[in-house]
Amino acid sequence: MGDITIEKADYIIAHYTDLLTLAERKALRHHVSTIKLEGTADGRLSRLYLKTG
Question: Quick check: 33 and 49 in contact, CB under 8 A?
Answer without folding.
Answer: yes
